[in-house]
Design a protein that fits this description.
Blueprint (H helix, E strand, L loop, with lengths): L1 H22 L2 E6 L4 E6 L2 E7 L12 E3 L3 E8 L5 E10 L2 E5 L15 E3 L1 H14 L4 E6 L2
Parallel strand pairs: 1-9, 7-8
Antiparallel strand pairs: 1-2, 2-3, 4-9, 5-6, 6-7
Length: 143
């Protein structure tokens, strides 16, 4: 009974979003200012990778999200069937996915998606697949 009361108090004190994020096995934190992605697994730092987010006129949504769907290979109907390998969709049509344009990593270059190198996208896709979408949080912020 005392344990459940503690859980209830934690939910009230920290809010549902903070509590569910704390329980996430995979935490993905994206910095729009630094154009980096930090990945933690089970509370320990796993990796920091260069990314590309939305260029001027194409914003990347900020907030805390959970993956909505995953596709080993997706083709964008909106952008001429552009391939989006290892896609993790997190907010409507926005996804984290691999890019062949690795020379642009580290600066805004996309139409709003979060681009990673093919190897890093494959690694993240595997982590989320193993730990589960419900155990993954994706936080996008300016800082």
């Amino acid at each position: 009974m005392r344990i459940w009361m503690g859980v209830f108090v934690a939910l009230i004190a920290f809010g549902d979003a903070a509590f569910s994020q704390a329980l996430a096995s995979v935490q993905v934190r994206i910095s729009l200012a630094r154009q980096t992605m930090n990945v933690n697994v089970d509370g320990a730092h796993y990796a920091t990778w260069a990314i590309s987010t939305g260029k001027q006129g194409y914003g990347t949504p900020s907030g805390t999200f959970r993956p909505q769907s995953m596709h080993k290979m997706h083709y964008s109907r909106r952008y001429n069937m552009t391939p989006m390998p290892h896609s993790i969709f997190f907010h409507y049509g926005f996804a984290i996915h691999a890019t062949s344009e690795v020379r642009h990593l580290g600066r805004p270059a996309s139409h709003g998606c979060i681009r990673l190198s093919p190897q890093n996208a494959r690694t993240l896709y595997g982590l989320v697949g193993r730990h589960g979408m419900k155990s993954t949080s994706i936080t996008v912020s300016y800082y």
